[in-house]
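Morning!

This is the sequence you dropped in the shared folder:
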Amino acid sequence: MRKTTLNAYEKSIEKDLLAGVYVPVKQKELHEISESIAYRKKDAVLNIRVNSHDLESIKSKARKMGIKYQTLISEVLHKVAL
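The structure's back. Tokens below.
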């Protein structure tokens, strides 16, 4: 049988798991989380033309937030669509 080698990140997760940092969630909460993830799944492609200055501004704001600019645009569209 092959021995599994964990990287540093995986080892920290294992350590936290054994220390009880992670707690089980109730079935209802797990269902709500999975529904939320499924609802936000991106399943369509959109190609648009935008002003280059606007795009640079969006990219700058996304960098400051620590996210990808496509994610920021998608979140803004999602909020407007609701």
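Headline: Residues 29 and 35 are 10 Å apart (CA to CA).

More detail when I'm at my desk.
O.
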